[in-house]
UniProtKB/TrEMBL annotation:
PANTHER family, alphabetized: AT-HOOK MOTIF NUCLEAR-LOCALIZED PROTEIN (PTHR31100:SF63), AT-HOOK MOTIF NUCLEAR-LOCALIZED PROTEIN 15 (PTHR31100)
Keyword terms of this UniProt record: DNA-binding, Nucleus, Transcription, Transcription regulation
Domain PPC: 61-186
Pfam families attached to this UniProt entry: PCC
InterPro entries the UniProt entry points to: AHL15-29, PPC_dom
Residue span of region Disordered: 1-50
Biased composition regions of type Low complexity, renumbered to the chain: 1-17
Sample GO molecular function, one term: DNA binding
Name of the protein: PPC domain-containing protein
Domain of life: Eukaryota
Start-end of Polar residues biased regions: 19-37
Length: 186
């Protein structure tokens, strides 16, 4: 049972004034402890969509402020032909830095070798696809049948059994499923 002398009404409590002595007597006694203000949590709240955005280092290296281009290659289309057509249509030159997806076949040649090019039939998983395409004539679009690759594309891919193929692209590289080429324009 509550004793009547333990109940304190809100109107009977004293409030601090601008007098420093009064503040010391209210908070300085041993029966009252100074309450700490509640600290606000730092950072983002749990479950919020305000995620940390990492800086795009590619834009700083490029100098033009352009980011990477993602070129989706449709099934049964040639990667090289699609990339070159994209460059000519948009009048850009670029470095291909990677590719992701599955290819059905690729024509490979070995650099500095007298062996003829060979066609590897897949499906294969792309591991690496790099090269540079320089669009020398930015104002004329020609057919892709006479593509001149002065700087060849190199490719690396694996089979389902773990066999790895690496070489210079000497012909067509046919997309099989969900191929995306990443390039940086210059």
């Amino acid at each position: 049972m509550i004793q009547p002398n333990t109940i304190t009404s809100l109107s009977s409590t004293s409030h601090p004034s601008s007098n420093d002595d009064n503040i010391n007597t209210i908070y300085g006694s041993s029966s009252h402890q100074q309450s700490q203000p509640l600290k606000r949590p730092r950072g983002r709240s749990l479950g919020s969509n305000d995620r940390l955005i990492l800086p795009n280092m590619i834009n700083q290296v490029n100098g033009h402020g352009r980011g990477p281009i993602h070129i989706n290659v449709s099934n049964n289309s040639d990667l090289i032909e699609t990339v070159v057509q994209f460059a000519r249509r948009n009048r850009v030159s670029f470095d291909v830095i990677s590719a992701l997806g599955t290819i059905s076949c690729a024509t490979l040649g070995q650099p500095h070798s007298q062996t003829p090019a060979f066609i590897a039939h897949g499906p294969f998983t792309l591991v690496s696809f790099v090269g540079t395409y320089t669009n020398n004539n930015l104002f004329v679009t020609t057919s892709s049948s006479n593509i001149d690759l002065r700087r060849p594309f190199s490719i690396s891919f694996t089979s389902n059994t773990g066999q790895r193929f690496t070489g210079i692209v000497a012909g067509k590289v046919m997309a099989h499923n969900n191929v995306t080429v990443v390039a940086i324009p210059f």
